[in-house]
Amino acid sequence: MVLEDYYFSIIVVAGTLILLASLGFIFRKTRIFVEQKTVEQFIFLLVSFIGIIVLVLSLPISDNTKQVLLSFLGILIGATIALSSTTFVSNGMSGIMLSRIKPFKAGDFISIDDTFGRVSDIGILHTQIQSIDRDIITIPNLKLISNPVTTISSSGTVISATVSLGYNVSRDRIEKALTKAAEKVELENIFVHVIELGDFSVTYKVGGLLKDVSSLITKRSDLKKKMFDSLHEDHIEIVSPTFMNQRVYAEDTVFIPEDHDKVCIKPPATYEYVTEVTTEDVIFGKAIEAEITKKISRMIEDMDQKQNDFVALVNGISDEELRAEERKALDSLLRQKVELKEDLDSVIAVLGKEGDTSTDGVRLKSLQYLDSKAGDVSIELKELLDRVSNEIEQ
Question: Of 131, 151, 171, at which residue does a domain stop?
Answer without folding.
Answer: 151
